[in-house]
Amino acid sequence: MKVERIEFSIVSPEMIKNMAAAKITKTELYDQEGYPIEGGLMDPRLGVIDPGVRCRTCGGSVGECYGHFGYLEATRPVIHVHYSKIIFALLKVFCRKCSKLLIDPKDMEKVKGRKLSFKELAALSRKKCPFCNTEEKKLKLIKPYTFVEGAETLTATVIRERFEKISDEDLNLVGLKSRPEWLILTLIPIPPVTVRPSITLETGERSEDDLTHKLVDIVRINDRLKENIDLGAPDFIIEDLWELLQYHVSTYFDNELTGVPPARHRSGRILKTLSQRLKTKEGRFRGNLAGKRVNFSARTVISPDSKIELDEVGVPEVIAKELTIPVKVNETNIETVKTFIMNGPEVWPGANYVIRPDGRRKKITVLTKEEIAKEIIPGYIVERHLKNNDIVMFNRQPSLHRMSLMGHRVRVMPGKTFRIHLSTTTPYNADFDGDEMNLHVPQTEEAKVEIENLMMVPMNIRSPRFSGPIIGAIRDHITGLYLLTKDDIKLTRPEYTQIVRAVDKNVELPDKESLTGKEVFSLFLPKDLSIEFKSNVGDVVIIENGKLTKGVIDKVAVGAESGKLLDKIEKVYGGEFTKKFIYNITRLAIEFLMKGGFSISISDQDLSDVARKEIKEVIEKIRREVDELNRQYMKGELKLLVGRSPKESLNHMVKTILRNGVNEAQKVLERHVKENPTLAMVKSGARGSLVNMTQTAALVGQEMVMGERIERGYYQRTFPHFKRGTVGLEATGFVSRGFKDGINPFEFFFDAINSRESLMDKSLKTRHSGYMERRLVGAMQDLKIEYDGTVRDSANRVIQFLPGEDGLDPSKVQKVGIDVRTIADKL
Amino acid sequence: MSEQSQTNSESGLPSRLVEEIEQVSREKKLSKEKKEKLIEEVKKVYQQSIFEPGEGIGIIAAQSISEPSTQMTMRTYHFAGTAGIKVTYGLPRLIEIFDAKKEPETPMMTIYLKKEFNNATEAAKLAEDVVEKKILNVTKRISLNLNENSIEFEVIDKRRIEAVSKAVREFLKNVNVKTKDDKVIVIPKIENVKELQTVKEKILDIHVGGIKDVKNAIVRKDGEDWIINTIGTNLKDVFIIKEVDEKRTYTNDIHETYTILGIEAARSVIIKEALKTMQEQALDIDTRYVILVSDMMTLSGEVNSIGRYGVAGAKTSILARAAFEETIKHLVRASIRNEVDNLQGIFENVMIGQVAPSGTGMFDLIVKADEEKE
């Protein structure tokens, strides 16, 4: 059965009465024995919340019976707060005496057949009724629910009477499909107890739901109002009570009304009433309907494993024994299934439950397993433990893009963490400093097939965002390959055999005494691959027919989010091959690095005396130039930039000098620094940059806050240690030393200011971009490609005739799109 | 839709590819059969590379744009190039574009000149002329004469005195304006001396020359062209100037582009500005997604924002709107209008636990009953 559509409308009193199972009349909830009172708010006819009890209306037990509505007869009608705006709009356009539309019959063409808004209708309305000549009075809505006409307050009864007289034709003209008197409540629907269950505390005391508390208030006041009317109490008392009833009914619907004090619990806590249940992120809509909690899922810390395949996930045995997959027993699998049952719930791979053909669920225990194994016949469903090569979904939050949830194959392992291949950290944006991830087990064959065919890691190597590989080598993988494929690397037969065999036992090895690093790498390349590109440092890299002949392999070749080689391999040989390829080269890199060891040292950043002198000169030069500018500024001789004040001009010019100066220092460093591990990382693009090296070895440079040099702090100076009005470099956040030499307290403080700013920036940014994502998704989630190739929304409107103006799916093509030239060359 | 988006009806290929095929076959001097074969091959590759029906392109677009935006800078201002104009950039600018803010935080124009005026002198002259002049900019020594309840000021350029006094007269009613040498004396009809100050402020703000809202202009050379970059935008008034090449002159104000050049132009500006912002931050995002967002924003013929008052608030599904923002408002409205939710979207179906008609949920398998019997 499928829900085709959902209609929204206003409930009529008849409907409230018809759907009700009980009429609520009593103010008490329970009698002296603690049983719910019939006619009270916990009436047993409204459903069951206690286990073991059967529903008085439908006979169902907890879980079977969803509960039934009741109703309360309001002694006097009350306004539904959320409808006060429309009530006000209606009052304005209908005559207060004859309840006819206040529009002159002459103006009728303007209204008929057109859907006018209430604002437009009100503009057309006459001050004097065209039918009965009654002078209309000025109306005012005092939010949230008081209506004033002239000097008089309109009671809900009066409004309701007026609305009752409105003819259906007039309503049609206004565009209202329900009777307007239904906007004013005479019957109040009482929600079933199942939506407001009471909890029994350990002490045996009952604690009621917020909604029940609110409803008790309503019933109580309603009762008192009735009593007072029956007793013939003075009008003002009745009016006060009526107003109080209105207050309670209003806060029952919405407890965050402006101008109304929120209803509170006895403890002073503000009650959560109907509107509050629906609203916000934790509310029914966003919290329970759009996102739901699920079974068959697990969550634990992740840790790396370089010997696991890219599309595998290491699952701890404890988790594998908890998560199950339903297997339908048939003739062919009955024997294997029996072994699972015989293993029981405690030995992996075992089974936890069997489901009999009649739907009854049976738990497998150490005691019952033999009996159940004998009982099993085709048609039973056995919930067996997770096994190797089962298909699961793996996810890390925040799920910012579709690669945050991918399909993996299970590999059950000892330990208590999920194990993943290092290259898959990029799409998940994971690291191992305590990150946790979630695992979901599909329970139906369809779900499993969809994951296998649409979500597996190899299918997600190419990102739809930029048409390039998002999975690739990272960090040490890149360093390793870079060092391996450098020109002078030679490996003897024992060396290369050991490395290559550790990666892949089936690779054919050439019969040679020694191999170059490039040759070793080429062993893993497809034999017909040819490609040429520029490496990270700008040299040419050539691969001809599966042989790396020139250049090094670095970030540009195989790096995640950039690898040109991976890009090509994915396009030509497909995701499955690329997966294997990435596995091979990352293993190769690690094996090679392990041969000789790899570590970096502070001494990598030692500079020769010549270099230090040159850098000193650069700093001196900066200082001289800035001093000169400052001098000119002080004297007022500074040549101003267009449209800038002297101060702005000075700052701009100084910043340029500083930027150029630091760049110059970087060039000096580049010229002098010797080949070393740190530089290998920088050059290969594995980690770190020349800027980092310059900051450690040479100088940190200018610390900036909000894009300006630091000038804040004390009056006209950054620290009390400086003279007022100092403009020198030291006083404005310039750090002329490197981290290795050490920076002085002032410099350290400036650096801290900068760090704090970027920290704040980061946390603000995540909020803003998170909200932007939500809005973008909210606006575009229903867009999809139709069978005719157009982009349409859920109302079937065409958004684009050809998606992206060329119809190409970015996750299927290379960045350049379709390369006609290469196709032509192949012909 | 723009021209390039049209598919070539003959081959079923986008015109961009058709052109490329033409070009390549011309270059390589391919024979007719060879060219035919090339077209066949390209077609094959094209068919393999197009979107599959059911693909949730909207969500992918939204994710592709926002996932890397966490890497963008928050610091709002940035000095563009050596010209040194302050510009909103990074994430705040991107949000501003998608919000379709009525006025960008840093409105800017790029004015191109017609061929015959495309030189340094004309550009410099125009840059000078274009900047708005207010009385504040053309006068010096403003004083309040408390005895006579009047305001006096000197005009820097004496030749302009008539224009200035005329402007004051036109702008402020109830004033008496006299000129004396290079001085303009304004006598407002007021009772309170305190009001004199406010009148003075008003006078200083009176527009006397140049183009309204243009606060600064800088001349720049870009390849062959002399360009004037301005802070503040006013396309309408700039287009009237005869030296200006109105075909290329451009503003970063989406709404201004919409009112003056129409919705198609606004669409292009959204695409161009969003791409520019992302390129500045070295973010790698496929252009197709930006185009989609822009199409979504301009679909109705007006510029709509991404968000509760724009595209997201105009969705047909009540449940989807209620789940997005302002839950109660949408539910109440739906009940008054007797609205119906046809459950065609994703959110709605997730909510009621059904398969959404998207992706693999777009189709059903139907077994012919009589065939099964056989």
Question: How would you characterize the overall build of this protein?
Answer:
The complex is a heterodimer of chains A (827) and B (374). With 827 residues, chain A is of the alpha+beta class. Chain A folds into 4 domains: 15-263, DNA Excision Repair, Uvrb, Chain A (Irregular); 297-460, Barwin-like endoglucanases, CATH 2.40.40.20; 476-596, RNA polymerase Rpb1, domain 3 (Enzyme I, Chain A, domain 2); 603-757, Topoisomerase I, Chain A, domain 4, CATH 1.10.132.30. In chain A, helix 12 (334-343) packs antiparallel against helix 13 and helix 22 crosses helix 24. By secondary structure, chain B is an alpha+beta fold. In chain B, helix 1 (15-27) packs antiparallel against helix 2, helix 4 (90-99) packs antiparallel against helix 11 (263-280) and helix 11 (263-280) runs antiparallel to helix 12 (287-298). At the A-B interface, strand 1, helix 10, helix 25, strand 29 and helix 26 of A face helix 1, helix 2, helix 3, strand 1 and helix 4 of B. Strand 1 (6-7) of chain A pairs antiparallel with strand 13 of chain B, so a sheet runs across the interface.
